[in-house]
UniProtKB/TrEMBL annotation:
Compartments it resides in: Cell envelope
The species this protein was found in: Emticicia aquatilis
Lineage: Bacteria, Pseudomonadati, Bacteroidota, Cytophagia, Cytophagales
Protein name: ABC transporter permease
Keyword Ribosomal protein: no
Keyword annotations from UniProtKB, A to Z: Coiled coil, Membrane, Transmembrane, Transmembrane helix
Length: 436
């Protein structure tokens, strides 16, 4: 019985221990693999988000091929302020042939392209109206000459007539005075009647008065005749000048070369009608040449007489100097004349054109970038600057100054040695970074 009881108690004890073990919860570990993975992923996501918001480059980007771009280095050197213009070779002097009088071309003596001497006949014109006016003027001059001669002849005749009249009056006065003096004595002696004395007195005084009147009339006639002669002489002089003018006008119907040179053009044909003042050609003086240059009106305030330039001809440089400025602006350009400062190049010909380097100022030290297509897209306000890695270029504001055909002067924004994209930005849009 004791053994059975001990066995029973042992079985009960084992059951009790078993039930006790089943009622207690089994505790799990906190830092298991799954929890560590979740926390680590969340931390990485948080770091990424913080970096995106705080440090990531949010600028717009564009991938481009660097080989298709022009990349230039910012340098420091002498900035030569000049522009390149085009000049055309012209004779130093060109004399226009304008028709002094009108008419139709009767004969064309010399064709264009030939050399002419001073005074050589080039054209012969015909104008019947001019000839008629000349004949009328000559006729009027002849009439005035006759009138002047007749007036002078009439004055001479009148002078002789007055002299004869005065001579007769003097004779009559002498006779009347003798009678008057004699009758005066007889009247004092009471020998003759008072009426006879008074009659002789009145006759004498009448003749004296008549002589005075005749002298005044003679003087007036002489003054009037002198005035008429003076007027006729003045009219005749003017008419004769008019005749001479018509004669010279007729002479101008023969067109002659005013100077010797090359008759470079003559734009008329036989039978064609020419108006007064019409240009019929020109003569080039081949003793010297000049360059006629077109310049953009943007530079008109900086161009002045004496400004220098140069151009290359047959492998040599020749200096030029502005001598004349034409201020009239046409199609945004104006013209100047430049002469050769140290002799005309040998072999140069009229009509040749050549680029000319026109200096606008003395060379100065400056930071420089080459001229490129970027300027038309940015106005020179910003450029793409390549970073030190050479893998991208970033937009940067700059300030440019003067410009010549080769370089821009950099005032702000770039350092010597930096690399800048100087080709066109047309396809880059508004992107702030270019990736290569």
């Amino acid at each position: 019985m004791a053994q059975l009881w001990n066995k029973f108690e042992k079985n009960e004890l084992e059951k009790t221990i078993a039930f006790s073990t089943m009622d207690r919860q089994i505790q799990k570990k906190f830092w298991n693999t799954q929890r560590i993975a979740m926390i680590g992923g969340g931390a990485l996501l948080a770091v990424f988000l913080v970096w995106q918001f705080a440090f990531a480059d949010k600028r717009s980007k564009l991938n481009v091929e660097k080989d298709k771009l022009t990349v230039s280095t910012v340098t420091q050197g002498d900035f030569d302020e000049f522009i390149v213009v085009t000049g055309v070779v012209l004779p130093l002097k060109t004399i226009r042939l304008d028709a002094i009088v009108g008419g139709y071309v009767k004969e064309k003596v010399v064709d264009g392209g030939n050399m002419v001497k001073q005074g050589q006949v080039i054209l012969k014109l015909e104008n019947q109206n001019l000839k008629l006016n000349f004949l009328q003027s000559e006729t009027e001059a002849s009439r005035l000459v006759n009138d002047l001669q007749n007036t002078r002849q009439r004055l001479k005749v009148e002078k002789f007539t007055i002299r004869q009249t005065l001579n007769d009056l003097d004779f009559q006065i002498d006779q009347a005075k003798d009678l008057y003096d004699r009758n005066k004595k007889l009247n004092n002696d009471k020998v003759i009647a008072e009426s006879d004395f008074m009659k002789s007195k009145r006759d004498y005084e009448k003749l004296v008065k008549q002589r005075e009147i005749t002298l005044e009339s003679s003087k007036y006639q002489e003054e009037n005749a002198a005035m008429q002669i003076k007027q006729l002489e003045g009219t005749l002089e003017r008419t004769q000048k008019n005749v001479q003018l018509w004669r010279e006008t007729l002479e101008n119907l023969v067109v002659k070369a005013p100077v010797g040179g090359l008759l470079s053009s003559i734009d008329v044909e036989v039978g064609s009608n020419i108006n007064q003042g019409q240009n019929i050609g020109q003569i080039d003086d081949l003793n010297g040449f000049k360059m006629r240059v077109d310049i953009d009106e943007h530079y008109i305030s900086r161009i002045f007489a004496g400004l220098g330039g140069s151009f290359e001809f047959n492998g040599k440089n020749f200096d030029l100097e502005i001598t004349k400025i034409y201020p009239e602006v046409r199609n945004g350009r104006f013209q100047v004349d430049m002469v050769f400062a140290k002799g005309v190049p040998e072999g140069i010909k009229r009509g040749q054109s050549s680029p000319i380097r026109l200096e606008l100022g003395k060379a100065t030290k400056a930071v420089l970038i080459p001229v490129g297509g970027f300027f038309s897209d940015t106005g020179g306000n910003w450029v793409y600057v390549v970073d030190k890695s050479g893998k991208k270029a970033q937009k940067r504001k700059i300030t440019l100054g003067r410009k010549n055909p080769e370089y821009f002067e950099v005032l702000e924004g770039l350092q010597v040695g930096e690399q800048v994209i100087t080709s066109s930005y047309e396809n880059f849009g508004d992107n702030e970074v270019l990736s290569f």
